[in-house]
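Methods — Computational structure assignment.
A single polypeptide chain was analysed. Its primary sequence is given first, followed by the predicted tertiary structure written as structure tokens.
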Amino acid sequence: MKTVALTAGVVLIASVSLLAGADNEATPSIKQVMVKLNKGPNSPLAKLKTDLGASTPDWDNIQKSTKDFVVLGAALAKNTPSKGDKASWDKLSDLYFKDSKALDDAAKSHDLAAAKAAHQRLSTSCKSCHGAHKGKAS
């Protein structure tokens, strides 16, 4: 009986520690998300364009990148931009996340047309968001 109680106590402490650790993780900033996903020729966005253009896509490699879009895309909505309207930010960051999720779902199902379409939407989302929340279009 003591062993069961001790084991339950250890499990409870471990669970609380894990939950506390999750709360303590910092949400990546807007800039961190954008740099990680979009900056440079080796960014996931650029690599995906190449990978999705291959005659035989490497779906395992593609899925590694699309997972980053889902995780980091979800982080965008947790941020507040220094410029622009909150309602606009909520709408645009939600759309970015939905397109990220669509890209990931397409990669998981090896749906090349859907993956290319979602990738295109993500690629062209910069201008409207930057215009509203960064003060310039890119």
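Note: The mean pLDDT is 84.
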